[in-house]
C-alpha cells in the first residue's frame, strides 16, 4: 500500500460533494429567489429579515458550503470539458491550475463575504 | 432488390507500402450476412492477402472488433443489411497500433490489464480439504455484470481519453478490476487501489460514457469507473489521514 502521488482523488472528492450539494439545494434557491419571489407567488419578505436569516451561524455555514462546493464542482467539470473539447491532454495541467485556482479564489471571496454579511 | 454491396477495407501491408490505403471489393449481398462474413468471403474468394482476426463468430470471443463506418463494432454481430445501400467502410480499431490490415497490436492493453491484477487475491489460500468457496446469490450479483467483459477492446476505441492519454489504463481494465474488487472471495483491493488511484488510473476518466455505448455485452464500464471513483476517493482520504496500515489492507 502506498500513498497516492496523484491529486485527482482529492479534487474529485470536492467535485463529488459539490455535485450532491448543488443538485439538492440549488434548485430550491432557483425556485424561491428566481421564480417564486419575482413572480409574486408569495409576499416579498423584507430585505432586513432575509439578511437576518442569512446572518444565523448555520445559514452562514450553509451558504459558504453551497457556494464553495458548487465552485469546485464546476471547476472540475470545466477542466475535463476543456480536455475533451480541445482534444489535448497537454492542456490538462494548465486547465487544472486555472480551474481549481479560480475555485480557491472564489471560495476565499465567499468566505469573507459570508462572514461579513 | 440490391444484389451486391461495396466494401471499403483499410489495408496496411508494411513490407509493401509504408502507408495505409483503402481497397474496394464488390461482394454479393446475402441475407443475414454479417460484416465478418463479408470479410471471410473476400479472403476466400477474392483476395487471400487480407488479414483480420476472428474466432467464434458468435459474439463471445471478442476477436473481431473493428471500426465499421467509423463506429467500433463486433463484425460478427453487425449485419450488412444495417448499412444498405452501402458502401461499408471497415478499418482497424481506433487507438491501437496496427500490425497488418485489420489486425491490431493488443500488447499495450494486455500490459494495462495485468497491472490491475484481474484475478482473485485471497488473504490466504484455503486447502482443498476445506471445500469450495461458497457465495450467496447476492454476493454473485455484486460483480457478475463485470464478468461479462470479453476483452474485445471496443471500449478502448470508443473512449476519447484513451486516444488522448496513452497512460490511461482504460475502461475494460477498470471494469475487470472492479469485477474482483466486488468479489467476496477477493482481498486484493489495496493492490488495485495502488494502480487505480495513481496517474493513469480511474481518475483520468472524464466521464464521457462512450465505453458503455460501445460495449456489446452491456458491462457498463462507465458505471464501474464512477463506482470506483467513489470507493477510491474514500481510500485516498483514509491513506492521507489515518495512520499507516489503517486503510484497507
Describe it for me?
The complex is a heterodimer of chains A (117) and B (249). Chain A is mainly α and 117 residues long. Chain A has helices spanning 8-36, 47-55, 57-86, 92-115. Chain A has a single domain, classed as 3 helical TM bundles of succinate and fumarate reductases, CATH 1.20.1300. Chain A is built from four helices and no strands. In chain A, helix 3 (57-86) runs antiparallel to helix 4. Chain A starts with 7 loop residues before the first helix and ends with a helix. Helices cover 34% and strands 13% of the residues of chain B. Chain B has ten helices and seven strands. Chain B has helices at residues 35-46, 107-115, 137-141, 144-147, 154-158, 160-164, 171-181, 189-196, 210-214, 221-241, and strands spanning 4-11, 21-28, 65-68, 71-74, 88-91, 98-100, 103-104. In chain B, helix 2 runs parallel beside helix 7 and helix 7 packs across helix 10. The N and C termini of chain B lie far apart (65 Å). The chains are: A mainly alpha (117), B alpha+beta (249). Chain A binds chain B through residues 1-6, 8-10, 12-13, 16, 80-81, 83-84, 87-89, and chain B through 160-161, 164-165, 190, 193-194, 197-199, 201, 203-204, 206-208, 229-230, 232-233, 235-237, 239-240, 245, 247-249.
Amino acid at each position: 500500500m502506498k500513498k497516492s502521488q496523484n491529486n485527482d482523488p482529492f479534487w474529485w472528492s470536492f467535485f463529488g460533494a459539490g455535485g450532491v450539494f448543488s443538485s439538492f439545494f440549488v434548485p430550491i434557491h432557483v425556485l424561491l429567489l428566481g421564480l417564486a419571489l419575482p413572480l409574486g407567488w408569495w409576499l416579498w419578505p423584507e430585505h432586513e429579515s432575509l439578511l437576518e436569516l442569512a446572518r444565523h451561524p448555520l445559514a452562514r455555514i450553509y451558504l459558504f458550503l453551497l457556494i464553495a462546493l458548487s465552485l469546485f464542482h464546476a471547476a472540475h467539470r470545466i477542466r475535463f470539458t476543456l480536455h475533451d473539447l480541445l482534444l489535448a491532454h497537454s492542456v490538462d495541467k494548465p486547465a487544472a491550475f486555472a480551474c481549481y485556482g479560480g475555485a480557491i479564489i472564489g471560495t476565499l471571496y465567499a468566505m469573507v463575504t459570508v462572514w461579513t454579511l | 432488390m440490391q444484389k451486391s454491396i461495396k466494401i471499403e477495407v483499410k489495408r496496411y501491408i508494411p513490407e509493401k507500402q509504408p502507408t495505409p490505403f483503402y481497397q474496394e471489393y464488390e461482394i454479393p449481398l446475402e441475407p443475414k450476412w454479417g460484416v465478418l462474413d463479408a470479410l471471410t468471403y473476400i479472403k476466400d474468394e477474392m483476395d487471400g492477402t487480407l488479414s483480420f482476426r476472428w474466432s467464434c463468430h458468435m459474439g463471445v470471443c471478442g476477436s473481431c472488433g473493428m471500426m465499421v463506418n467509423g463506429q467500433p463494432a463486433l463484425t460478427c454481430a453487425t449485419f450488412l443489411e444495417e448499412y444498405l445501400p452501402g458502401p461499408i467502410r471497415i478499418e482497424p480499431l481506433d487507438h491501437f497500433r496496427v500490425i497488418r490490415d485489420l489486425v491490431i497490436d493488443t500488447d499495450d492493453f494486455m500490459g494495462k490489464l495485468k497491472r490491475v491484477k484481474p484475478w482473485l487475491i485471497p488473504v490466504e489460500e484455503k486447502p482443498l480439504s476445506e471445500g469450495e468457496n461458497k457465495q450467496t446469490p447476492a454476493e454473485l450479483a455484486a460483480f457478475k455484470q463485470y464478468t461479462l467483459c470479453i476483452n474485445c477492446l471496443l471500449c478502448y476505441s470508443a473512449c476519447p481519453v484513451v486516444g488522448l492519454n496513452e497512460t490511461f489504463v482504460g475502461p475494460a481494465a477498470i471494469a475487470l478490476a472492479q469485477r474482483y474488487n466486488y468479489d467476496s472471495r477477493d482481498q486484493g483491493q489495496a493492490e488495485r487501489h495502488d494502480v487505480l488511484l495513481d496517474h493513469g488510473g480511474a481518475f483520468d476518466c472524464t466521464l464521457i460514457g462512450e465505453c458503455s455505448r460501445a460495449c456489446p455485452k452491456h458491462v457498463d464500464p462507465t458505471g464501474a469507473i464512477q463506482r470506483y471513483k467513489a470507493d477510491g476517493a474514500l481510500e485516498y482520504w483514509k491513506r492521507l489521514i489515518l495512520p499507516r496500515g489503517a486503510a484497507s489492507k
